[in-house]
Q: What sequence folds into this?
């Protein structure tokens, strides 16, 4: 099992704006809004407490709940030979700041902070995926796209398997992740076809 803490995330303003449009609907992008997004991105740098835990498993090492993954063939019919489960978070600092903004009735700032946090969580998950990309190089395998786990049961299974308490990630009884801005999921490892080698 690999555990990493305090890695850097750099939310991109363009991606934050995409999240913001999803949250606020068809929002008019103005120079003032772009400036507010840039300002919040810089303000929150010290609020991150990034952490990740992930582990790659062979077929016989995964509990029964993971069995359906082994039947997942790609477009060429190749089935996976391994799977990496991951849990990654940006911590609670930005979540706390968001709660404070909501408490003060700062609606626009709350939406911006939520968008920054979502983009930051995505950046953290992409960081783990890039690390896996380095690991897979000598293995004659290719990685699938990252698949985020959205179901409560799936998240609970992954967090339990990874003992995510080591990086202070948990799931409450109602299915909410803590910290809020956390990603869990898996990446499949498939053997390269002889043509790709």
A:
């Amino acid at each position: 099992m690999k555990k990493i803490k305090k890695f850097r995330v750099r939310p991109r303003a363009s991606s934050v704006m995409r999240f913001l449009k999803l949250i606020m609907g068809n929002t008019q992008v103005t120079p003032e809004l772009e400036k507010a997004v840039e300002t919040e991105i810089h303000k929150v740098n010290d609020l991150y407490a990034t952490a990740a835990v992930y582990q790659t498993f062979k077929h016989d090492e995964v509990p029964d709940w993971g069995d359906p993954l082994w039947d997942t063939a790609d477009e060429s019919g190749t089935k996976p030979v391994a799977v990496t489960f991951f849990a990654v978070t940006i911590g609670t600092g930005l979540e706390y700041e968001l709660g404070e903004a909501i408490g003060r009735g700062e609606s626009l700032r709350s939406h911006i902070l939520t968008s920054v946090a979502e983009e930051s969580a995505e950046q953290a998950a992409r960081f783990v995926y890039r690390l896996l990309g380095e690991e897979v190089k000598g293995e004659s395998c290719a990685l699938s796209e990252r698949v985020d786990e959205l179901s409560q049961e799936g998240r609970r299974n992954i967090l339990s398997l990874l003992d995510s308490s080591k990086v202070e990630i948990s799931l409450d009884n109602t299915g909410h992740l803590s910290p809020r801005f956390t990603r869990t999921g898996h990446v499949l490892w498939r053997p390269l076809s002889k043509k790709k080698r």
